[in-house]
Amino acid sequence: MSKKGKVLVAMSGGIDSTVAALMLHKQGYEVIGITMKTWDYATSVGVNNKKETGCCNLDSFNDARTAAVEHGFPHFILDIREEFGDFVIENFVEEYIAGRTPNPCVMCNTHIKWRALLKRADAMNCEFIATGHYAQIHQHTNGRYFLSKGKDETKDQSYALWGLQQDLLSRTILPLGMYHKTEIRQMAHDFGYPELAKKNESYEICFVPDNDYRGFLKRRVEGLEEKVANGNFVDQQGKFLGKHKGYPFYTIGQRKGLDIALGTPAFVTAIIPETNTVVLGAEEDLNRTEMFVDKINWIKYDGLSDGMEATTKIRYKDKGALSNLYQSDNRIKVVFYEEVKGVAPGQSAVFYEGDDVIGGGIIQREIKN
């Protein structure tokens, strides 16, 4: 038994998770590698689409296993397709049908991936679980475990981890949090995997590897295209502008692919699923000063101090905007100091205190100024 402890490491076969596992092994942890199969490629893309990318293909499984075998620690493949599909994929579809824009990676991390890891870690008597995410975990003087941004802000993934609860954070190790991506690439070279250092990264949704979420929805929901066809585009005052292809196929802030000529640039500013209506406006019509957030998970503190100041991020690559947070029944009302653009219901709102994650939730609805 290692003095460092026993750790179950999620290994996708990519550079980050592989280096994370090898780092922990080198540091003296007793490492067990595990690769999670989350979806079936054949059911996710069209039959004529030959593009297979992302983390859940056979090559990735083999890459993860090879690294484990060559460094002398065990590796297993875990089939969680049923767990993943029942929650993450169905939630993805339901959110679009509800006129919202989901973030499936957040849902997977929060409800599936970490829980599946912890369940198997307990079965294997592992004290810890680990992943290759670029973020840090600390323990506050109040006893709570909390997330901080990764040292490499260009790769920081703390935004996608806001849903992790205390029992998960307390047992999670994130070895890459204090490193830049360039350092991880060098480590891959040093460990003897120069080809891994050159491996392309996938930024697509894992179960939509062709990056065509509209096609995925059409294949997943029988008759959807016919049911939602010929909805109305309207302007900010509700005036008819033209016909669209169906409200689930549009997202807040979308400009390209609208197939409507108005003489000036038009953006999707609101989606009304009840009437199959898509509202268009000018870019400034996307600006908001307030929003509501629900399904809150507090991390650094055990609740909200009413009026608390926080930097709120409304999307992964958002730099964040200063705001105040107020309790409003079971929701949080976020009031921004200045206008922010493109608040999209269904996306995550994550609250920061400096580099530390206070908590996060799901954007519920917009409030127009």
Class of secondary structure makeup = alpha/beta
Q: What integer value in Å does the Rg equal?
A: 22 Å
Give the distance, in angstroms, between the N- and C-terminal Cα atoms: 61 Å
Count of separate structural domains? 3
**Number of E-type strands:** 17
Read across the widest sheet, the strand sequence of neighbours is 12-15-14-13-16-17
Descriptive notes:
This protein is of the alpha/beta class and 369 residues long. The protein has three domains: 6-132 and 175-197, HUPs (Rossmann fold, 3-Layer(aba) Sandwich); 228-281, SH3 type barrels (Roll); 285-366, Elongation Factor Tu (Ef-tu), domain 3. It is 27% helix and 29% strand. The protein has ten helices and 17 strands. The chain has helices spanning 15-27, 41-44, 58-70, 81-97, 104-123, 166-169, 181-190, 194-197, 213-220, 224-228, and strands spanning 6-10, 30-37, 75-79, 128-130, 135-139, 145-149, 172-173, 231-234, 240-244, 267-272, 277-281, 287-298, 308-313, 321-328, 331-341, 348-353, 356-366. Strands 12-15-14-13-16-17 form a six-stranded antiparallel β-barrel. A five-stranded parallel β-sheet has the order 3-2-1-4-7, with helices on both faces. A four-stranded mixed β-sheet has the order 9-8-11-10, with no helix packed on it. β13 and β14 (321-328) form a beta hairpin. The chain is globular. The chain starts with 5 loop residues before the first strand and ends with a strand. The model is unreliable at 47-54 (pLDDT under 50).
